[in-house]
Amino acid sequence: MTYICAQNISKEFANTKALNNVSVSIAEGEIFGLLGPNGAGKTTFIRILNQIFTADSGSITINSQSLAAADVHRMGYLPEERGLYKKMKVAEQIYYFAALKGMSRHNAQHELNLWTERLQIQNWEHKKVEELSKGMQQKIQFIVSVIHKPKILVLDEPFSGFDPVNAQRLKEEILRLKAEGMTIILSTHNMNSVEELCNSIALIHKSEKILEGNLAHIKQSFAKNQYRIRFSGYVDTLMLSLNTSYKIIEQHKEDEQSEFVLELLDNSSANDVIRHCTQFGAIVSFSQVIPDMHSIFIDLVSREQTNK
Ligand code: ADP
């Protein structure tokens, strides 16, 4: 069921159309990926959701109620351009932001201790932000956005500046927050993180939404009729036996086994392929080729570019 509903959002700056009639629907407790190349309009959308900008037209509701300042106050927000005070000590800074969100110092202290442990931040207490590594600063900024346990969390490129180990740690924490019921909007270029985290996505390109839906459904809908087969047997004879209904997309031969991808060009089914292959040997594994989000993104964005 829709929790956050943006309808027909448009926003123009001077001569630039940043968003053109964009609608998205986000379910409670999901991780929603906001995707798109640079300049697509993602940050503008997030800023409208955060009431930093007002839309020229369109509306946003949360639980069917118009978005209100109190909703925004409760949200957690990790902006892409990080906003920590460099000269201020880490703990003081976190207590300051937590107080702005209405937390007592005692509560903030308790939560901060949990978070520094979860994200493995050591020796931070008496340091100023500028004395921390970039990755550490990122973690502190993340803590600022979640310390008050928001119901809605907006993360703009949360993985930038992280090494793979820390990016993985952050991914696990994001999944934990989701499991606790938080609704998370994730704006990113990092398609691996989209694959690992998002339930559904919207792809924005040149101010317009060009794709939206459940991630698994989208991937399935972009799948061609291709199958990856690991095979043991008379592979050369098998290949020669294939008629024009099959196209060999790739083929790797090893000593004992071969792996190949076949595209089915007419109405033949996976069962037909299996029946055919087993005449020449044994199928070791068989799976449909499902495209990853990275190739869907590149495919759609370049297709739109040539159309415009
Ligand atoms: P993204 O976050 O997807 O990279 P943005 O929402 O930042 O995209 O930008 C969308 C378009 O709106 C871009 O062409 C950008 O230059 C323009 N834009 C964004 N913010 C402003 C602003 N404050 N003033 C003028 N133009 C802006």
Itemize the secondary structure elements and their pairings:
Layout (H helix, E strand, L loop, with lengths): L1 E12 L2 E12 L3 E5 L6 H8 L7 E6 L2 E2 L2 H6 L1 E3 L11 H11 L4 H14 L15 H13 L5 E5 L7 H16 L3 E5 L3 H7 L2 E6 L2 E7 H7 L4 E8 L1 H7 L4 E8 L4 E7 L5 H8 L3 E8 L4 H15 L1
Parallel strand pairs: 3-8, 3-9, 6-7, 7-8
Antiparallel strand pairs: 1-2, 1-4, 4-5, 9-10, 11-13, 11-14, 12-13
Bound molecules: adenosine-5'-diphosphate.
The site of adenosine-5'-diphosphate has 12 residues, from strand 2 and helix 1.
Question: How would you characterize the overall build of this protein?
Answer:
- With 308 residues, the protein is of the alpha/beta class.
- It folds into two domains: 2-220, 3-Layer(aba) Sandwich (Rossmann fold), CATH 3.40.50.300; 224-288, 2-Layer Sandwich (Alpha-Beta Plaits).
- It is 36% helix and 31% strand.
- It contains eleven helices and 14 strands.
- It has helices spanning 42-49, 69-74, 90-100, 105-118, 134-146, 164-179, 191-197, 215-221, 235-241, 270-277, 293-307, and strands at residues 2-13, 16-27, 31-35, 57-62, 65-66, 76-78, 152-156, 183-187, 200-205, 208-214, 226-233, 246-253, 258-264, 281-288.
- Strands 6-7-8-3-9-10 form a six-stranded mixed beta sheet, sandwiched between helices.
- A hairpin with a 4-residue loop joins strand 12 (246-253) and strand 13.
- The radius of gyration is 24 Å and the shape is globular.
- The mean pLDDT is 93.
- Bound molecules: adenosine-5'-diphosphate.
- Adenosine-5'-diphosphate binds at residues 13-14, 16, 18, 36, 38-44.
